[in-house]
Structures are given as C-alpha cells and as structure tokens.
Amino acid sequence: MLPIKKESFQKPVQSIGLFGYGTVGKAVYGIIQNTPGLQASIEKIGIKDPGKKRNINEGLFTAHAGEILNNPCIHTIVELIDDADVAYQIVKDALWQGKAVVTANKKMIAAHFDELWRLQKHTGTPLLYEGACCASIPIIRNLEEYYDTDALSKIRGIINGSTNFILSRMQDDALPFTEALLQAQQLGFAETNALLDIDGHDAANKLSILLAHAFGCVIKPESLLYAGISKLHGDDVKYANQRKQKIKLVAQAQKLKNGKLAAFVLPQFIEAADELADIHNEFNGLITESHYTDKHFFKGKGAGALPTAAAVLSDIAALRYGYKYEYKKISTQNSIQLSNDYYIKVYVSADAFSKIKSHAFEYIDESQSQYGYCAVTGVILAQKLWEDTWWRQPGVSLVTCTDPITPDADYKKISRRSLELAGIT
Ligand SMILES: NC(=O)c1ccc[n+]([C@@H]2O[C@H](COP(=O)([O-])OP(=O)(O)OC[C@H]3O[C@@H](n4cnc5c(N)ncnc54)[C@H](OP(=O)(O)O)[C@@H]3O)[C@@H](O)[C@H]2O)c1
After folding, report:
1. What is the band of 424 on the pLDDT scale with cuts at 50, 70, 90?
2. By C-alpha distance, which of 333, 288, 267, 309 is closest to 139?
3. From ligand 1's centre to the CA of 228, what distance in Å?
4. Mind listing the domains of the chain with CATH numbers?
5. Does 81 sit in the ligand 1 pocket, CB within 6 Å?
C-alpha cells in the first residue's frame, strides 16, 4: 500500500479584510471565530457608520476603506455591504491590487459582470460569489465545473428567498402581502431595499449571473423580461387554489429551437407534481436539464444569515487551494444570444377589462369576469410583453401558465384563422 505523505508544513493564516457587519457579515465573522480549522483571521472590518455600537472589539472597525485595501498584510477581501456602487469600487480596487475577493453582492456583480470578468482575466486574481445566487445552494460551482461537457438546455427555479417566503405565507396562512413582507424583513431574508426583492430585480440580477455560468450568455439584468410579485391580487391566489396550484416567482431560461435563449423571471402557476411546489418559505430550488443527465434538482435555503455565510465560507476555503472561475462557457462557446422571439402562455387579471390589451394576444383560450375581477388566459409574443407596459400598470397582474413557452403558437394561430375564414369560430 502506498504511504500517504503527511503535510509537513503549517498552512499560513489567511488574513481577511471584511467589509460589512450586518446580517451576513456578522454571521461570517462568528463562523470564522468558531472554525479554527479554516486558518483564517479577520484583521479589520469596514463599516459605514463609525458611531454604531458593535458587539465585538471596537478596534477592529474602520469607516475608511483604504485602511483595509492598502494594508499589504491583507490578502483576501470579503465584501458584504448593501451598497452596490461602493461595493463595485471596493472589489475593483482589491482585484487591481491582487487581493482575492469573495462577495455575495448580486446587484453589483450583475451590473458589472462583463468588466469584472475581464478584470479577473487581466489580473489573474479570483473573485468568487457563490453566496450571491441561491445563498446556500452550491449552484455556481456546479454550473462551472459539472455541466461542462453535458451542455445545459434549461434552468428553472425559485431563486429569491424573500418572495418565496412572502408567497408561502400568503398562500399557506392567508396572510396579507404587507404583513408577510414585514415578517421576511424581520427574519433578515429581505434586501435592505425590499423593492429589490418584491419587484423581481433581485431574481433578475441572479438570473443574469446564472446565464453567464450556465450558457455563457453575458447580459445586463435590465435586458431580461422580468416582474415581481407586488401586483399579485388575492383573486389570483384564489384562482390558483381552485386549481390546486401555487403561484411562485420563477426564473427560467431555455434554449429555443432557433439556437437562441429565452429567459425571464415572472410569477408562474405551479402544479402540485412540480418539484418547485415543495419549495417553501426562504428555500430556493433550481432544476437543471441537460442532454445526457436529463434533470437535476437543487434545493436549499436561499436567504438568511447562516445559509449565506456558509456559501461565503466555502468560497474563502476554496481560495486556499487556488480555486477561480474559468468562465469556460463564455470563453469557448459561440456566445448564445438572448431572444424574446417566442410565445408565452400567460394569465392576466385586472380590476377593469379595459386594462387588459386583448388584441396584443395571438389567441385567447379563456376569459372570465365576475364581481369586478376579470382575467384572460392566452398566448402572447414575449417581445410584446417586453415592449408594452399595459400589464405593468396598477390593478393588473400577470402570471405565466405551467410550462409557459408555447412552441406551436404560429400553427394554432393559422388554424384558428382558417376556421374563422370558414365561418367556424
Ligand atoms: N441577507 C441575506 O439573506 C442575503 C443573502 C444573500 C446575499 N446577500 C447580500 O449580502 C450583502 C449584505 O447583506 P446584509 O443583509 O448583510 O446587509 P445589511 O444587514 O443591511 O448590512 C449591511 C452592512 O454594510 C455596511 N455598509 C453599508 N454601506 C457601506 C459603505 N459604504 N462602506 C462600508 N460598509 C458599508 C453597513 O455598515 P453599518 O453597520 O455601519 O451600517 C452594514 O454593516 C448584500 O450585498 C446582499 O445582497 C444577503
């Protein structure tokens, strides 16, 4: 039997400069103190408000970023602040100085993905951000490493813990929207600016990051078709309940027959048999589909101090063995293009029929109106949703149907038109 060599040297301690001592920052600090095996030491903590009372040694804190960034003894920066613009400056500065960075700031990464990817290539310095997408689910490293030869055809999932928590409370406990949101904020699941969650911006930021790692598609979140849950009406929930369905905020991306990529974040009706139906509260769930493997299903806590801190810790540990993202799909594939040229089946409800632009639909399958609540279900070109604003106005809500991408819309439209011409309607 071959003898196993024992490491004869002590690994050097990883000296960390931590930015942010809020929900996630505090948890990361606590876990590092309780994990001596990690051999990491937090040298300084950057915060915004020097007057705030802290529960640990006050001497560790500084409101001057330069005190951390210019310290030659600090080799790793862990960025966990809630200001995406300042975070970008910190991360850029650190990478230029050759300091490895771990961050969970999806807004910052999504807004500057292209620059940050190029900066890592140029400097050779790693930037890891597992905690930025689905918190505790190790999805980015799996997309980077596992789905390399077995190309992905689709990803679909619940990637925002706060909205899923709110929808769970509304559907399972009949809690009003505002009360459910307050609970999410009190439990530390919601972003400091709650609109980032409830209007779908946070999920769009995460989807844009996932698209780069899953399909090599680098696009800004604002290029995506997306909406949140703030306009959902109690009657929409009732409609779902009657059909034994749930409403979830779903992020979906799939390759189309024309080789392009459809991608959106929209509320969706979920059948009881769908894996996503069992994703409750702050949990996230993501299904990947690929040619040989078929389906994988990832489930884990998608928000909160400890689950996010766990992902940050995993990145800190990965830096010890020189791990960095290779962005293979961006570098090697002919980058896949995003397209809104596909049909999507949606349900739109409104407090007045005049608010539903029915002539925008290719065809309408169902239409109902009672007690001041009206709704239509039909197929519409995604590009029309992207361009039009009528479905975003107050009093109107939109939910995609199960399996919403409709490949045979052209065929149906033509056959309906021929029936009309033949006088059979
Ligand atoms: N909470 C979650 O469940 C979760 C999950 C995944 C990812 N994230 C991401 O993790 C990051 C941190 O979130 P959080 O929930 O921990 O936020 P948080 O509780 O609001 O804490 C924010 C921290 O950032 C500090 N800060 C703000 N502006 C700063 C500046 N200009 N310079 C230095 N420090 C500054 C604040 O300093 P003061 O203490 O002085 O106010 C505070 O310590 C965000 O990017 C968020 O998107 C959070």
Report:
1. very low
2. 288
3. 22
4. 14-132 (3.40.50.720), 139-301+325-332 (3.30.360.10), 343-421 (3.30.70)
5. yes
